[in-house]
TrEMBL record, chains A, B:
The lineage of its organism: Bacteria, Pseudomonadati, Pseudomonadota, Alphaproteobacteria, Sphingomonadales. It catalyses: D-fructose + ATP = D-fructose 6-phosphate + ADP + H(+). This is fructokinase. Its EC number is 2.7.1.4. PANTHER family: FRUCTOKINASE (PTHR42742:SF3), TRANSCRIPTIONAL REPRESSOR MPRA (PTHR42742). Its cofactor is Mg(2+).
């Protein structure tokens, strides 16, 4: 990339990160804004973007947001947050609002899809066209890329809410308010804290809870292999980063679970590379928004439908 | 479609169906060949295709085959059957052999992916770009289409081998030789017969086994919604066709399982259309091969890599 600049906004549950960049190694400016109610938060973001637009001439805007988001370009509520339980954000217009205020070609996807696309462009999945990016933090999310594009259909994936095989002998009911013992209900930071009575970061590396967490994440990888057939699965997020013993346990349990079936043979021979850490660290989210901005610029998209 | 003709071959575990057609309602000729050992079977198919090529001038060939198949166009064994347990077929060259013998642009995909593409073009998923087609027969297979294309990555989906939430109180270990209680291990015709001691078709509609089967298939649909986000899921195959009480049970259990989460809300309001029967009946497989032939003709593909 040259001196062409792009705007990115990662909208998270607790904070939003605005980024002005010409590439992954050329972040010109970055600004954090706490996520409060939508009018205040989105207004503050607009003022940051406005300043940058005056001084630089960014060509497009990428939005990587918490969800669920309406991603149907033909929908009147395209780019709105939809059924969130986050106070005030239900039906908040994000993409249409920013497309209008900036006048720039704008793309939106989930935060995890953005992070996955950034890892595919510049990070741990570089050169691959089908891969997945799992983040294990307060919740469990996954960005799924198939044939170079993030998966879309009825909506966007919510792979953290799939069910998997339970660890034999483990009958803890799980902490997901929707699905009980889905992956998020068993392996998220929230679930681990509910189960153990203390934050995941304070639990010893040899605590038995990690076997249940690793079993659940291996089950998630098993089901991704059988459906989206990723060439690699990156697993990051606060819980996994602070408890590095988890990833080797996931690898071991995934190999056992796949049991040498079909293409899974190709996985077991290179499991260290198949289940890997993301490469962009804390910048995966912000660069996810920049990756979406690059897509928006490439598509030469005008403002999204309905604007 | 006009008078342009296409060749299709569906390779199945017990029989192969060769089709000469100019469209879904214009099957000109069809010929069945028992599946024995590869030399004999593929030779017999070649003779049928050869006759048709002399009399008609088909423009392309589609192959919809049992798997696993190597679908990596850069692989020297592209279009080969790979790790099958079917005697003699391991490493059998299918696509390269037929591309060479016919000299036609050739496409290959799994039998279920072909059937899914045919249902998308002409059948129960017409007009949709993201959907899934599940067949419950001796085994359980699924074709997954995202953005109009069948999913590819590390290989092709083997969604019948995902794990799902077990029905509370049901601890039957499952019949899959690889994964025990994966979907195929619990809901396939083979598994049902192992469990019940008689063929699925001879079991009464109110037998308790159907609750376990429906629970498993609903779990499969739940996980597909969370990963591939299909706009519709078609469920067919011998077991489901002969036991029509299964589909309403799957719908009911899927609505309960999704629990109103996110985009799943959109599903529950139109569950009758979301979980539906395929429309092409016995011709889904043969027309799957024809759908792949259309793709091959459109891509203007020469013979596949390595030929």
């Amino acid at each position: 990339m040259t001196d062409i600049t792009y705007l990115g906004v990662e909208l998270g549950g607790t904070k939003c990160v605005c980024t002005l960049a010409s590439g992954p190694d050329a972040i010109i400016a970055q600004h954090r804004i706490p996520t409060t109610e939508p009018g205040e938060t989105l207004g503050a973001i607009e003022r940051v973007l406005d300043d940058w637009m005056t001084d630089h001439r960014p060509v497009s805007l990428g939005l990587a947001s918490f969800g669920p988001i309406d991603l149907d370009p033909d929908s009147p509520t395209y780019g709105h947050i939809t059924a969130t339980t986050k106070p005030g954000w239900k039906n908040a217009s994000v993409a249409q609002r920013f497309a209008r205020s900036t006048g720039l070609p704008t793309a939106i996807d989930t935060d995890v899809a953005g992070a996955a696309l950034a890892e595919g462009r510049w990070g741990g999945a570089k050169g691959l066209s089908s891969f997945a990016y799992i983040t294990v933090g307060t919740g469990v999310g996954a960005g799924i890329v198939v044939g170079g594009r993030s998966v879309r259909g009825l909506g966007h994936p919510e792979a953290g809410h799939m069910h998997v095989a339970r660890m034999p002998g483990d009958a803890w009911p799980g902490a997901c308010t929707f699905h009980g013992d889905c992956v998020e209900g068993l392996a998220s930071g929230f679930a681990i804290e509910q189960r153990s009575g203390r934050p995941a970061s304070e639990i010893a590396a040899d605590d038995p809870v990690w076997a249940a967490v690793a079993h659940t994440l291996a089950g998630m990888c098993h089901n991704l292999v059988m459906t989206a057939v990723p060439e690699r699965i990156l697993i990051g997020g606060g819980v996994v980063t602070r408890q590095p013993q988890i990833l080797p346990m996931v690898r071991q349990r995934l190999v056992a679970s796949l049991a040498g079936y079909g293409d899974a043979i190709a996985v077991t021979g290179r499991i260290e590379r198949f289940i890997a850490s993301p490469a962009l660290g804390d910048q995966a989210g912000p660069l996810g928004a920049i990756a979406l901005a690059l897509d928006a610029a490439k598509a030469g998209q005008a403002a999204p439908a309905g604007v």
